[in-house]
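Can anyone check this?
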Amino acid sequence: MNTLSLLRSTVRVFCITVVGYFCFLHGLLKIPLLQDHAIYLHGVTLTWFQDISIPEQWGLLRNQVTPFTLATPDGVTLHAWHILPLGLYHQHEEELVKDTEGIAIDITERVGFKLLRDDPKSLLVLFLHGAAGTLGSGWRPPSYRAMYAGAPDKIHTVAIDYRGFGSSTGAPSEQGLLTDALTLAGWAMQEAGIPPSRIVIFGQSLGTAVGISLAHHLATRPDPTLFAGIVLVAPFADVELLTATYRIAGAVPILGPLSPFPRLLAFFNTFILSKWPSRDKLAAFVKECEDMPGDDPKYHITIIHAEDDYDIPWPYSDQLFWHAVSASRPPDGITFDDMEEEKAQTKTMLGPGGWVAAHQTAKGVIREEIAKWGLHDKIMSYPIVSLAVRRAFESRGPIESR
């Protein structure tokens, strides 16, 4: 093949690729159903041949997990797991083993639920997972063990599959997932009787956006509700920024090829339905807490990210931390560059463990913890998360004295 023919073939392939990419974008951004599948990946269950009503398949003990369902106000049924901490399970193993198994028709009759509800010192993590998969997918089962590792006789976990995920009915949307999280929080406080001071919100990836939205929504009501803390692992600032780097299933870019053309990227971003403006909502949450009367602490936020996360790059956590800190410094906040300079002088270096930056006011604490390793999901099962969960609970008082 001569040079001219090679050039023509190259141009032809390039043109076909460009046309194909923009046809893909047109379909993705103009058809809401395709867009939702690309963002939420709820059709990718990763547990196709497993029954998620049998948690023992993932190495959990008999009746350590109680599968049950939650009904949302808009008629969706959510599949949920209540996971007992290992130390508490050991104390009540005999009666738990004898208890009814399978999905609870009435969870209030189960031994595990009674151990949560009837202990005035029990603590509860509301677990909000990331995109794709189900309650039993990937690193989620090991991460449930990380939730209670900091206090294995006290910290319960309740996790849900959002609408459209796993066995849950409906289809995901930004408002829909917020409704799901509100339903979970309402169940925890009303049905289980756990006050918000004994609840920590944990979110990973997509779940960080859901958790921030939940905390912001409840804090800005006329009668605000504030939880003991929020732990955010591998967060993003908002979907519009994320599209410049995000790849569907880690392989297919959405708007990444347009990132050298900011105006074109901004134009296509206007078609995205699920915005998830986490940095703005977290900042609004912090400002709301800072403006509340009283001297007692109002919030405890921990942001965790791994440097080797190739799904959501760790600098997004810098954006989230900056916006949160800036909101705590009225009236003008702080610029990103000034924030980075301040962090460089005050952050704690942990060698191979990464580093920690912390900002504290009279009303709360904002921590950014960057680990060297942990990828996107694996880090959920690490001690850095266990300690962050425990620290969040301890922001409302020593665990042993509750």
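Reply from J.R.: I decoded it. DSSP finds 14 helices and twelve strands in the chain.
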